[in-house]
Amino acid sequence: MEKNYSEEEAKKILNEDITTTKIVDQKMNQAYQEIRSKKTGRGKHRTYKKVVVAAAAAALIATTSLVALAANGFFQKEVVESNDSVSYKFTVDYELSSNKIDVKPGYLPEGYTTEFAENKFCKEDSWGNGISIIPMSTADIKRINNEFSVDKIENVEKTTLNGMEAHVITVKEAEKYRRGNCVLLFNPEDGYVIEVWGYYDVPVDELKKVADQLKIEKSQDETVALPTAEEVEKEKGMQQEDQKWEEKYQQAKEAGVGDDRIVPIGQEIKAQDFDNEEITAVGDGFNKLGYTIENAKYVDSIADYPKENFYNYDEDIASCLNEDGSLREHLRQELGEDGRLKIDESTEELVGSKFLVVDVQVKNYADKSVNAPLYLSTARLQSRGDGTYDMDSKWESMAVPMENWPSLEGPVYFDKPQNVDGNDRIHQFFYRTMQPGETLNYTLIYVVDEDMTEEIFLAPPITSQDAELTTEYFSLKTN
Question: Which of 40, 53, 100, 170 is deepest in the core (most CB within 10 A)?
Fold first, then answer.
């Protein structure tokens, strides 16, 4: 069974995704904007939720249209530019088999010597945020349905680097929104595209040098394997299953959350699938837990709470505090329908936040010890006025990345940690071994924006995909 990730691990995973799959996963990432599990770890701890592979990229209004034709090449590309986006649409000759290539850097900027994954380089004190070199074959182009796009761009410089056509793409307000710039190299004659991606603090001129001095070696006898018919059919089947689940989800969303699924303080919620013995066996019994909120309150300051019980006080909390331990105001911005920041200053606002302190009791009903998930995830449920709540109210705004603000979706503090060092802390801070029949009392702390406090509910860890559609929620009201 999968484990939920801590916030620090989630950051690393997200950073690696950003720096490794900007092209190959572009189409998938657009569809994944509606992923309701979002981040794991300190954020929402929803392990089982499937993503819905759905929407194609929105059509762009073209102000410039170029068609680059390569005689006897593996692909042709169409470049369509709008005011702040650029899209690439490929026509590929899949009757031809392109040769594999091996790509290595011939130049890296000073300090970028740590290779944290293949062809991914960073500074020693900035793990995961650096430079990535990503080759894309015709098979990769096929996997993204022959197109990808980059939005919120500042400029596309068309030039020649490393003997190839190159597009140098810079994005708007890269530092504020922690976005990366990139260089694309196109080689239709040999059938590949290479992206050199750099975090916002890597100078664009340095990215151009990296791209211009890449060492590219083409295999003479090894070709790129395209997806087989069986693989294509398997992927279609998975997409059909995802679509069926999405339909179930939409039905549940329309019905909303009834009062019968809202549990008051002092009443226990047993984990979803509590009686499912198959999940008990596979999941080592973590669905055999019962959670009770005994008290919940909002406080202004955490000055009296031990720093060592915060998951990552120095990086996630300290910079967000005033001298008295209260939270400073932070800059927040609206999200678009695609789940991403609009990058539009007209939607920004300064907001205050409070700490939500929750006292919890959990009981292990299993007849064996359990590695128990002890976090509770936040949900924002907005009343419809008819006795039901929106099941999945939008987090319609969030702190801009430059704020390095704690997630609103999960705890930042746990006063009974068992896993406090190294990788155990990174992966399992909000977990603890519980013996058969054991009851544990503990405290969690969350960060909540002031204008959301009346709409925050808490939910136990999700144990299965379908159970999420019927989960119960803790009300935090004491009257």
Answer: 40
Q: pLDDT by residue (tens digit) across 71-88?
A: 458 999 999 998 889 999
pTM confidence score: 0.76
Query: What pLDDT, on a 0 to 100 scale, did the predictor assign at position 44?
Result: 35
User: Is residue 203 classed exposed, middle or buried when 0-12, 13-18 and 19+ CB atoms within 10 A define those classes?
Assistant: exposed
Torsion of CA 456, 459, 465, 466, to 10 degrees: -90
Q: Which residues, in sequence order, are bridge partners of residue 389?
A: 257, 383
pLDDT beneath 70: ranges in the chain:
1-72, 283, 393-394, 478-479
CA distances from 424 to 8, 150, 360, 428, 462 (A): 12, 37, 22, 5, 21
304 residue type, one letter: D
- Chain centre to alpha carbon of residue 173: 20
Q: Which helix (H) or strand (E) holds 100?
A: strand 99-104
Tokens of 26: 């572009």
Q: Is 390 helix (H, G, I), strand (E, B) or coil?
A: coil
* Closest to 28 in 3D by CA, of 182, 156, 144: 144
Handedness of CA 276, 292, 424, 419 (dihedral sign): negative
